[in-house]
Design brief:
Mean pLDDT: 91
Radius of gyration: 30 Å
Helix content: 40-55%
Distance between the termini: 49 Å
Structural class: alpha+beta
C-alpha cells in the first residue's frame, strides 16, 4: 500500500485536524508574541514626558499647538529623556484634524549619551491623527535624544505640535483585518497543501461533495475583488477632476456622459469645446495643448477622451454604457456611480472566470480525471491571476470595459466548451460566439481570444469537413454549424462598425488614436525592439520588495526612448501569479499534455495572448492596468497545464503506477508510487506556496505609493509592524 492509498483510508477528522491545529498555533503565536511584541517589551516601562529641545530653522512653531514647515531640509524637532528611549508616543493635541490627508511623516535621527553627534536613519515613519495605533513609534538602540526630521513634508505643511511621551506602555492590540489575512493564508495552505484530501477526490459536479465546495469557492472568489474595493474606498467623483500637470480636466465621468448621449440619440459627448482647442492644427500634441489651455482658460480642455472634428467622443467600449449606465439613467433619472458599475462588472467577471475554470476541468476530465482540489485551486488561482483584483482598488472607470470584456470572453469560452461536451450543440455554440463577439464592443483586443476556438474545435472542424464530402445532410449540418459560429460575429461586428462609421467616418476606426492623453497617439510609433523590454517588464521583472512597510513599491521601467509609462510592481509571473511559473516547466510535462491531446489548445491560447499583448504594448507601453486584457489568457493556459499535471500526479484510477506491470513485483510498484508522491509534493507544494505568495503580494501592494488607500487604513496596517 503506497502513501497516497494509506492517506485515503485515514479518518477525515485526522486528515484535517493536524493542519488546523498547526495553523491555530502559528496564528496564536503571531498574534500574541510577534505582532504584539511591543506590549511585552514595554510591560514594565515607566512612561515620562520628553524634554522639548527645540526645532530647526525650517520649522515654525505657532500658537494653537501647530507648527508650519517653512523649509523641509531644515525642519526638525528634537526631544530627549533621562532614560534610554525604546518607544515614543505622540500625544493628542486639540489642533489635530483627522482627515484623508493628515499623515505626518518624518525620518529619525538618534543620539546616545556617549555620542557626539546625530546618526540619521533614512526610512519614512510617522503617524496619522486618524489612526490611534500609529501614534507609537519605535526608537531603541539606547538612544536618549531623538530628532524628528520632517524633510518628507511639503513646504507650508501644517502639523500638530504637542507633547511626546517616552517609553509608553504599548497596549496589546488585535486587528480583524490582520486576522482575516492570516486565516485566508492558513485556509489556502490547509486546502491546497500537497497531501490535501481534495486531490484524492475526483471532480464530479453531479455529487454534492463536489458541487457544494465549488459553489462556495465561486462565491468567495467573486466577492474578493469587491472586498478589496471596499477596503480601499476609492473616491467616486461625479464630475471631471482637474489635473495641474496637464492643465486639463480628467474625463472620469465619460461613461455617464456616453449614457446621456445614447439616450439623446448622439454619438458624441456633450462636453463644452474650447474653440482654441478646435482650432489647433494638432490637438493631440500634449505640450501644445497644455499651452493652449493656459492661454485660453475660459473653457476647460478634457483629458483621456477622444477628440475628433471639433467634438468629444468616448473611445472606450460602448457596451457598458448600453447595458449598465444608459438603462440605469433611463429608469432612475440619475447617473450610475462608477464604483457601482465596477462592483457589478468585477463580480460578474470573477464569476465567469470561476465558471471557465470548472469548464476547463470538465474538458480535460473527459480523457483524464481532474481532482476536486485542482479544480478549486484553479478557481482561486484564476481570481488572483486575471488582473481584476490586482487593480480594482484604484476605482478607475478604465477597468469597467476591461472587466466586461473578460466577463463575455470567459462566458463565451465556457459556452463553447459546453457545446463541445454536448456533441457540438448548436444553440450553445451560437451563444458562445455571441458572447465572444461582444468583447469587441468592450475592449477590442480581447476579441483575439476567438483564436482559441480553432484548437478547441479542431476535431469537430475536421470531422464536419470529412462528413460534408459525402454531401446531403452532412453538408447541411456543416453549413448550419458554421452559421451558428459566425453569424453572431457578423451581427455584432456590423453594429460596432456602423457605430465607428458614424463617429469617425471609418468603420474600422475605434477612435483610440484620437485620445487627448499624455502623448500624441496619432503620431506615436514605438520601436519594435522595445517589445523585448516590455516582455520582461510585464512578465518577469522582479518586484521592488523592501523590509519596511508596505514592503512593496513600484518598480522602475528604464526606457531608451520615450514611452508612456505607468505604475508597475514587477512581472506578472513574480507578483500576481507566481504559481503560474509552472508554465516554464511545460517541456517537462509535455507527455501529460499529449496524453489528453491538449497541446494544440495550449498553443492556441498562447497565440491569442501574444497578439493581445503586442496590441497593448504597442499602444500603451508599460502599465499594470492593461494586464487585465491578456492575463486571463495566460491563466487559461496555466489551468490547462495544471489539470494535465494533476491528472498525472494525483491519479485516482486503479493503476497507481500505470506504466509498471505486475511482473516486475511489488518493490517496483512501490518505487514508482514513491516517485509519483515526491513529484506531487514538489509540484503542488510549489503551487500552494505560489498561491499564498500571490495573496500576500496582492494585500500589501494596495498600500504601496501611488495606490489608493484611506490614510487611517494605511497607518493602522503599518502599525502591525511597530516591532520592526
Amino acid at each position: 500500500m503506497d502513501a497516497a492509498a494509506a492517506g485515503a483510508r485515514r479518518p477525515a477528522s485526522r486528515v484535517w485536524l493536524k493542519p488546523i491545529l498547526v495553523s491555530f498555533v502559528v496564528i496564536t503565536v503571531l498574534e500574541l508574541f510577534v505582532f504584539n511584541l511591543p506590549f511585552w517589551q514595554t510591560i514594565g516601562s515607566t512612561p515620562q514626558q520628553t524634554h522639548d529641545d527645540g526645532v530647526g530653522s525650517g520649522l515654525s512653531v505657532e500658537a494653537g499647538g501647530i507648527a508650519v514647515v517653512t523649509d523641509p531640509e531644515h525642519a526638525w524637532r528634537d526631544v530627549s529623556a533621562n532614560q534610554p528611549i525604546e518607544y515614543l508616543y505622540i500625544d493628542h493635541v486639540p489642533s489635530e484634524r483627522p482627515s484623508q490627508n493628515d499623515s505626518v511623516k518624518w525620518r529619525v535621527s538618534t543620539m546616545k549619551s556617549t555620542d557626539s553627534g546625530w546618526y540619521d536613519a533614512n526610512a519614512d515613519v510617522g503617524y496619522s491623527p486618524s489612526s490611534e495605533s500609529s501614534r507609537y513609534s519605535r526608537v531603541g538602540d539606547g538612544s536618549t535624544h531623538v530628532r524628528l526630521r520632517y524633510q518628507q513634508m511639503e513646504k507650508g505643511a501644517v502639523i500638530p505640535y504637542g507633547p511626546i511621551t517616552a517609553n509608553p506602555r504599548v497596549p496589546m492590540r488585535f486587528s480583524a483585518l490582520r486576522l482575516a489575512l492570516e486565516l485566508a493564508a492558513a485556509l489556502l495552505i490547509i486546502l491546497f497543501r500537497p497531501n490535501s484530501p481534495l486531490y484524492r477526490i475526483r471532480l464530479a459536479l453531479r455529487r454534492s461533495s463536489s458541487l457544494i465546495p465549488v459553489g462556495i469557492c465561486a462565491v468567495a472568489t467573486s466577492l474578493t475583488p469587491i472586498a478589496l474595493l471596499v477596503m480601499a474606498s476609492p473616491q467616486d467623483s461625479p464630475e471631471p477632476t482637474y489635473w495641474n500637470y496637464f492643465e486639463s480636466y480628467s474625463a472620469v465621468n465619460q461613461y455617464q456622459m456616453l449614457a446621456d448621449a445614447i439616450l439623446h440619440g448622439r454619438t458624441w459627448l456633450d462636453y463644452p469645446v474650447n474653440d482654441a482647442l478646435a482650432g489647433m492644427s494638432n490637438p493631440y500634441d500634449t505640450k501644445a495643448r497644455i499651452a493652449t489651455a493656459l492661454a485660453h482658460p475660459d473653457i476647460p480642455i478634457f483629458f483621456d477622451v477622444a477628440f475628433h472634428d471639433g467634438r468629444y467622443y468616448s473611445y472606450f467600449g460602448v457596451l457598458p454604457a448600453l447595458l449598465l449606465f444608459a438603462p440605469f439613467k433611463a429608469i432612475t433619472g440619475m447617473d450610475m456611480a462608477t464604483n457601482t458599475a465596477l462592483i457589478i462588472t468585477a463580480t460578474l467577471a470573477s464569476a465567469a472566470v470561476a465558471l471557465l475554470a470548472i469548464q476547463l476541468a470538465r474538458l480535460i476530465g473527459r480523457r483524464r480525471a481532474v481532482s476536486l482540489g485542482a479544480a478549486l485551486f484553479g478557481m482561486v488561482a484564476f481570481m488572483f491571476g486575471d488582473g481584476i483584483a490586482f487593480v480594482i482598488q484604484l476605482g478607475l472607470f478604465y477597468q469597467i470595459p476591461q472587466e466586461m470584456a473578460i466577463l463575455f470572453a470567459a462566458l463565451g469560452l465556457s459556452l463553447w466548451i459546453e457545446a463541445k461536451l454536448r456533441g457540438l450543440n448548436l444553440p450553445l455554440l451560437a451563444s458562445g460566439s455571441l458572447c465572444m463577439a461582444l468583447t469587441i464592443a468592450c475592449r477590442p483586443q480581447v476579441i483575439l481570444a476567438t483564436l482559441i476556438a480553432v484548437p478547441l474545435f479542431g476535431d469537430e472542424i475536421i470531422g464536419l469537413w470529412r462528413q460534408s464530402l459525402r454531401g446531403g445532410a452532412a453538408l447541411i449540418r456543416e453549413l448550419k454549424t458554421w452559421s451558428c459560429a459566425i453569424a453572431p460575429y457578423l451581427l455584432v461586428f456590423l453594429l460596432q462598425f456602423a457605430y465607428n462609421q458614424a463617429r469617425f467616418g471609418k468603420f474600422t476606426d475605434f477612435g483610440a488614436t484620437y485620445n487627448l492623453t499624455g502623448y500624441d497617439m496619432t503620431h506615436m510609433r514605438a520601436p519594435l525592439t522595445q517589445y523585448f523590454s516590455f516582455v520582461f517588464t510585464y512578465l518577469i521583472q522582479p518586484p521592488n520588495i523592501t523590509a519596511h512597510f508596505p514592503f512593496i513599491q513600484p518598480a522602475g521601467v528604464p526606457l531608451t526612448t520615450w514611452r508612456s509609462e505607468h505604475a508597475m510592481f514587477g512581472g506578472w509571473f513574480l507578483t500576481a501569479a507566481p504559481f503560474a511559473l509552472l508554465l516554464f516547466t511545460i517541456v517537462v510535462w509535455r507527455f501529460a499534455l499529449h496524453g489528453i491531446r491538449a497541446s494544440g489548445l495550449l498553443a492556441g491560447v498562447f497565440v491569442s495572448w501574444l497578439l493581445a499583448f503586442i496590441v497593448d504594448a504597442r499602444i500603451t507601453g508599460p502599465d499594470i492596468r492593461y494586464e487585465i486584457d491578456f492575463a486571463f489568457m495566460l491563466m487559461t493556459s496555466f489551468l490547462v497545464l495544471l489539470y494535465a499535471v494533476d491528472g498525472v500526479v494525483n491519479r485516482q484510477d486503479a493503476a497507481m503506477a500505470g506504466s509498471v506491470t505486475d511482473s516486475r513485483g511489488d518493490s517496483v510498484r512501490m518505487e514508482a508510487a514513491h516517485w509519483r508522491l515526491v513529484t506531487q509534493r514538489l509540484t503542488f507544494g510549489w503551487l500552494c506556496a505560489g498561491l499564498v505568495a500571490a495573496l500576500v503580494f496582492l494585500f500589501f501592494k494596495q498600500f504601496a505609493s501611488g495606490m489608493n488607500m484611506p490614510v487611517a487604513n494605511w497607518w493602522d496596517t503599518a502599525s502591525w509592524f511597530l516591532f520592526m
